[in-house]
Amino acid sequence: MATQINPPQPVLPVSIDDVRVAHDRIRASIVRTPTLISRTLSEMTGATVYLKFENLQFTAAYKERGALNTLLQLSDEARAKGVIAASAGNHAQGLAYHANRLGIPATIVMPTTTPTVKVVQTEGHGATVVLEGETFDAAYAHARILEAERGYTFVHPFDDPRVIAGQGTVAIEMLEDVPAIDTFVTPIGGGGLISGMATVARASGRAIDVVGVEAELYPSMYNRIRGTDMPCAGDTLAEGIAVKEPGAITSAMVRELVDDIVLVSERSLEKSVSLLLQIEKTVVEGAGAAGLAALIEHPERFRGKTVGVVLCGGNIDTRLLANVLLRDLARSGRLARLRIRLQDQPGALFNVARIFDQERINIIEVYHQRVFTTLPAKGLVTDIECEARDRAHLDRLVLALQAAGYETTQVELA
C-alpha cells in the first residue's frame, strides 16, 4: 500500500521573506502608522477592534508602501528613464511622491474625467500628468503604449510581486503592535493589499483568519474566487476598490491564502465613514471604511474575535464627505424633512412652528409649495427641515403634529 503524502503546496510569487525585506527597505521613508483599539466600535460590533491608521501616511493611503518598494529596486538605467502608471487615485499620489523624493521622473496617465483636484495634487508631487481616454482602461492602454515607446518602467497598482510585498508590510506592523490579532479584515480592490497581508498571516505560526471586503457593486474578486457572475458597475462610495478585473497574480494568492470574502452595501459604507469621523475623529474614504462596514453588516462573522482593520485611505472629496455625514444624520433621525399639509390662511405656518417650539425641535429650512401641487387652490404643502436629538425625539414631534390635525409625512432617504 502506497504511503499517503500531503499534496505539494503551490509556490507563490511573494514570500514572507519578501515582505520582511520590503519592510526593512521602506520603513525609514514611510510613516509608522499606529494600530489602536477602538473601545466604542468594539462595544458596537461585539469584536475587539484594532484600527490601523494608514490614512495618516503623507499621501493619506497605504499605496505608498508598494510604490516605494518597487522604486527602490529599480536599476540605475530604469531610474534615469523614469516610471509610468495609470491611476486616478491613491497609487498615483504615492508613486508620484516617492519618485519625486528619489529624483525619478514619473508620468501618470489619468482619464480625462479625473477631477481637477486629483490632477493638481499629482502634479504637485512632481509628476507629469497625461490625460487620455474617458475610462481607466483607456488610460491604462495609453500608459502601456508610452512605456514601450519611451522605455519607462510601468508600476502596476496591484499585480506586481514588489507592490504586493510592500503592501504586506501593513500586516507586519499590525502584528508587531498587537500580537493578539486573530482576524484581518481587509478591503479588496485589485487584491494587492490582502495578498501581502495574507502572506504575513500564513507565516505567523498561528491561525489568523483573513477576510476580504468588497463593495456589493464591485464584487470582482468574489466573482473570480467563487465562480459567480454578479455585475461590477455602479457609482460606489468605495471608488478606491471599484475594480472590474482583479489581477492574475493577486487572484492566485487570494485563492490560496484568503479565508473568506464578504460584500458590503453602500449604506454600510456611508455609516462607517460617518462613525469613524464621529467616534475616532479620523477622515477615511469609502474604501478605507470597508473593513468597519464588514463588521457592522456581518457582526456574527466577527463577534468575539480580535480584529485588525486597515483604514487604507483618507482621500475623500470634502463635499462628498459632507453629504455622507448629513445623510447619516437623516437616517438616525437627527435631521429630517417633514411634509405637512396646511390650509392657505393667516397664522397657519405660525401654528405649526409653535408645535416645533413646544417639542424643542430646531427648524432649519422651510419650503412652501402653492403652485406645483395636486391640492385644491386653497391648500398648500410645506416641507420643513428640522433637527432633533434622536429618532424618539423626532417621533414625538410627528405625533404632536398629527394630534393637532396636521397630515404629516417624513421625506425618506433612498
Automatic annotation (TrEMBL):
CDD domains: ACT_ThrD-II-like, Thr-dehyd
Pfam families registered for this protein in UniProt: PALP
Family, per entry: Belongs to the serine/threonine dehydratase family.
Catalytic reactions on record: L-serine = pyruvate + NH4(+)
Assigned EC number: 4.3.1.19
Molecular function terms from GO: threonine deaminase activity
Native organism: Sphingomonas longa
PANTHER family (UniProt xref): L-THREONINE DEHYDRATASE CATABOLIC TDCB, THREONINE DEHYDRATASE, MITOCHONDRIAL-RELATED
The organism's place on the tree of life at top rank: Bacteria
InterPro entries named in the record: ACT-like_dom_sf, ACT_dom, ACT_ThrD-II-like, Ser/Thr_Dehydratase, Thr_deHydtase_catblc, TrpB-like_PALP, TrpB-like_PALP_sf
Limits of the ACT domain: 337-414
Keywords tagged on the record: Lyase, Pyridoxal phosphate
Protein name: Threonine ammonia-lyase
Presence of keyword Lyase: yes
Residue ranges that the Swiss-Prot or TrEMBL entry lists as coiled coil: none
